[in-house]
């Protein structure tokens, strides 16, 4: 919506969504305020390898070029709020950090996808990684730049991520781990693709009340807490609260020259106590060595998963042939 308000003439949007009914509703909403806008839809479920491959194929048939790819889809399933850790945090010197990152007070219950991957990892990271790899021909063009924009989080914590368990099978903070892996992956992509004109940046929308976070507490409690959160903005500017404020950095990045952005920075949407939104970079807690190791592991996993998919296709082809005989 913000992109269209800025430039609805020259912009062609393609919304890649898992739920076509919701996608249609979004498209209608955008067309109501911007009747001349070009808004296309594409069905894609980032948690499913075959869906991502199909969507990428379809995209390449429809379009010759992709200038901006917003990698925003994300889940935080079954969030559990640790009241004890929260109360302890309230009386510690870490209290502001707790409200801006959610560190130490949230855990999740992860699931397994049909491909056999951890659901949070597959949805938040691996599906997007595959998509970027598949869309390389439309993203990399001589003499032109393209940009990947990842929605990461202030909850991306190195303590929750391990190179020995990139899917976070063993822990209880898959969300945080997937977001830290996002930061690492963006750096590795810059390292590999900048020469071909493809740049990657990471943003953090701050804390917003959305479908993802609303279930953490009962709805009436959020309502009651709203004045408290607005007051807290005096101490931390990370409480963006609305999606409009949260999208500030996503929009800001669109306006920048990709070459001018720092691959080690995360661009934060922030909102001041007076309600003004702005974007500020913060250095990420990442290094090139870990980022390259993660990239190698993702490439290996991609190879394994493609192998499995081929075997499945062969099996079903064989079953069909046997049926015919
Ligand atoms: N809310 C917050 O405070 C923060 C959010 N973020 C990040 O912002 C991003 C947006 O989240 P937010 O707006 O808060 O939450 P929402 O749940 O409102 O949005 C998440 C979006 O991702 C889509 N999505 C989820 N899973 C899949 C999938 N498998 N395939 C395709 N699309 C999928 C959802 O589709 P559908 O409509 O079908 O559900 C939805 O549109 C996420 O990456 C999140 O991690 C980061 C920091 C803070
Ligand atoms: C008075 C209390 C009951 C208030 C509790 C508030 C917390 C539930 C929230 C405070 C900071 C929030 C936060 C997130 C979730 C909800 C809080 C912990 C995120 C972890 C959501 C997902 C993200 O990507 C980052 C957010 C950081 C802040």
From TrEMBL:
Reaction equations catalysed: 4alpha-methyl-5alpha-cholest-8-en-3-one + NADPH + H(+) = 4alpha-methyl-5alpha-cholest-8-en-3beta-ol + NADP(+); 17beta-estradiol + NADP(+) = estrone + NADPH + H(+); 5alpha-cholest-8-en-3-one + NADPH + H(+) = 5alpha-cholest-8-en-3beta-ol + NADP(+); 4alpha-methyl-5alpha-cholest-7-en-3beta-ol + NADP(+) = 4alpha-methyl-5alpha-cholest-7-en-3-one + NADPH + H(+)
Entry keyword Cytoplasm: no
EC number: 1.1.1.210, 1.1.1.270, 1.1.1.62
Membrane-topology descriptor: Single-pass membrane protein
Membrane-crossing residue ranges in chain numbering: 198-222
GO MF annotation, one: estradiol 17-beta-dehydrogenase [NAD(P)+] activity
Subcellular location: Endoplasmic reticulum membrane
Entries under InterPro entries matching the protein: 3KSR/17beta-HSD, NAD(P)-bd_dom_sf, SDR_fam
Pathway: Steroid biosynthesis; zymosterol biosynthesis; zymosterol from lanosterol: step 5/6; Steroid biosynthesis; estrogen biosynthesis
GO biological process: cholesterol biosynthetic process; estrogen biosynthetic process
Listed GO CC annotations: endoplasmic reticulum membrane
EC category: oxidoreductase
The keyword Transcription regulation is annotated on this UniProt entry: no
Keywords: Endoplasmic reticulum, Glycoprotein, Lipid biosynthesis, Lipid metabolism, Membrane, NAD, NADP, Oxidoreductase, Signal, Steroid biosynthesis, Transmembrane, Transmembrane helix
Family of the protein in this entry: Belongs to the short-chain dehydrogenases/reductases (SDR) family. ERG27 subfamily.
Matches recorded under PANTHER family: 3-KETO-STEROID REDUCTASE, 3-KETO-STEROID REDUCTASE_17-BETA-HYDROXYSTEROID DEHYDROGENASE 7
Subunit-structure text: Binds to the short form of prolactin receptor.
Protein name, as recorded: 3-keto-steroid reductase/17-beta-hydroxysteroid dehydrogenase 7
Gene designation: HSD17B7
């Amino acid at each position: 919506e913000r992109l269209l308000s800025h430039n609805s003439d020259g912009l062609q949007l393609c919304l890649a969504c898992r739920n076509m009914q919701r996608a249609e509703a979004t498209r209608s909403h955008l067309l109501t305020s911007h009747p001349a806008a070009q808004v296309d839809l594409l069905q894609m479920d980032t948690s499913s390898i075959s869906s991502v491959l199909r969507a990428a194929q379809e995209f390449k048939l429809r379009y010759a070029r992709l200038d901006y790819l917003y990698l925003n889809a994300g889940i935080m399933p079954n969030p559990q709020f640790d009241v004890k850790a929260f109360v302890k945090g309230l009386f510690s010197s870490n209290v502001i950090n707790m409200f801006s990152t959610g560190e130490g007070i949230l855990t999740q219950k992860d699931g397994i996808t049909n491909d056999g991957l951890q659901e949070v990892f597959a949805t938040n990271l691996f599906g997007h990684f595959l998509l970027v790899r598949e869309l390389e021909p439309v993203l990399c063009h001589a003499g032109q730049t393209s940009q990947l924009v990842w929605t990461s989080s202030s909850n991306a914590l190195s303590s929750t991520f391990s190179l020995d368990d990139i899917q976070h099978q063993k822990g209880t903070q898959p969300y945080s781990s997937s977001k830290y892996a996002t930061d690492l992956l963006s750096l590795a992509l810059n390292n590999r693709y900048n020469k071909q004109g493809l740049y990657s940046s990471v943003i953090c929308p701050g804390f917003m009340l959305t479908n993802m976070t609303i279930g953490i507490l009962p709805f009436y409690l959020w309502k009651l807490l709203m004045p408290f959160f607005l007051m807290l903005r005096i101490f931390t500017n990370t409480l963006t609260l609305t999606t409009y404020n949260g999208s500030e950095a996503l929009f800001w990045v669109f306006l920048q020259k990709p070459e001018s952005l720092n691959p080690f920075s995360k661009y934060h949407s922030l909102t001041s106590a007076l309600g003004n939104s702005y974007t500020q970079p913060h250095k990420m807690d990442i290094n090139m060595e870990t980022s390259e190791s993660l990239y190698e592991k993702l490439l290996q996993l991609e190879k394994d998963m493609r192998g499995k998919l081929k075997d499945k296709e062969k099996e079903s082809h064989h079953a069909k042939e046997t049926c015919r005989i």
